[in-house]
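ARCHIVE CARD
SHELF: 3
SLOT: left
DATA:
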Amino acid sequence: MRFDLTDLQLFIHIAESGSITAGAELSHLALPSASARVRGMEEALSVPLLQRGRRGAEPTEAGRTLLQHARTITRQVENMHAELAQFAAGLKGQVRMLCNTSAITEFLPDALAAFLKTHPRLSINLEERMSREIVQAVADGAADIGIISDAVDRATLQTFPFRDDPLVLVMAPGHPLARQLGNQRRMAFVQALEHDFIGLAGDSAFQQNAIEQATRLGRRFHCKIRLRGFEAVSRMVASGAGLAILPATAARRGSEPLRMVKLSDDWADRKLLICVRDEAALPGYARELLAALRRPD
């Protein structure tokens, strides 16, 4: 069984793109060459690695096992290069980091700016994902560090406290629900679902979570308009156009007059956690970033 790094990287690209053709392009290989490499791996293992269909190709059970090992091996090679790069000019390395919406907008900008200022030869590949997707990616070795909500199952990952991040319901002081609540400071999410909401644009992980929570209650989350950023949402809510779910930090930071009500649902009283697969196995520069994130404000 002789797989080289090109074979492994090709298989990762095919699995992630769902297509041998796309995987070949990402690996800078001709399609016949890529197909031959996949057949060679399957013949060496005497087991099919891909299930081919009209819509593309996806790993079989054996293929998923290979994918996990391929990611581990390629990551180890990347770590080796990054560790050695500190002896040469240029970047020392790159950290792949996945975070939920609240972390990426409310807490990380200042923390990462300070860290990068003192680590000029390091780069951070930062992406927004749903917390459960982050857990899977970190467990699979597709990301070094994740920041997730404590509401999701962390599986076997190592986790560390990051920030408290409670969610609140916000509305204009003159909104009908505000008048209905009177002096009440706490309510259940289901009570708010009778009204229209202002949401976040795009495939926001934060927005998707609110929709899923409504679905679990057997209700529909009606979003009148989607805007980019918590600040824009706050302004629209202040106009009386609808309600919104916001992190308490974002709601307090805004200059608009808003009525904030705590949600009694367990999922709203959340905390953010840093997660890694194995702290000891992280490259040195990634461990430095982890240590910096773990420090309180």
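SLOT: right
DATA:
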Amino acid sequence: MNYQLICSDIDGTLLNKNRELSEATIKEVQRLSHIPFVLISSRMPKAMRHLQDILGNTTTPIIAYNGGLILNNDTVIESTTINNTVLESIIEKCINTSIHLSLYHADEWYVPSLDYWAEREINNTKVHPKVKSNSDVLETWKTEGKGAHKIMCMGDEHEIDFLYKTLEKEHDNDIILYRSKATYIEISHRAISKKTAIETLINHSYPHIALNDVIAFGDNYNDIEMLKSVGLGIAVANANEEVLKIAKKVTETNKNDGVALALKNLF
């Protein structure tokens, strides 16, 4: 098979134990520079661009927010945000809990305080948020005609579990929930996924490529649909059981340069 596009998840897949790009990974991506290497993640664009800089593929499109925002350089190919009425409902449900809500729109990231959860995400993504209450962000976005590309809920596992079940029951037609960790819920618009984002990107930027010409790497629940739909869906060995079951191929763990090893063996 003549694969013509490579898409890779970032956290738990592409980055090593230090949440960095290893020399082996950089070398393989640069060796295959004739094939577009697209970062596809729940991260915000700002948390992806520094990785593009290191890889040397800054002109390649990126897919942020699990497909909620697709960019070709600074040109927006597609943007899908969560309705503010849903955001308002989520904010209300988190009042009187210990749950931290991070709100994202394009390269804007707002946190209610620089607490444990905010500091953890700063460490993970190398991006710094602005401190602003969730209700103030909501009012500003209503005025500016904006919505959230992603909502991140972080906190006590039991509170997160209760919130997940409540949101799933009340807003199932509006949003999709990803339990990336026991203490995390990542929330996106129901209409988007990594699979639909790749399809949109192909139609816009690579019309000569079919979905079957794509290789994709992933490790988590939000990667399943993508890995099932592309020509070759590869899971890293540390992936969730559900991901390992549907993957067409399994490579080494992210800590052992699984993406680099697979690319080296395939090309």
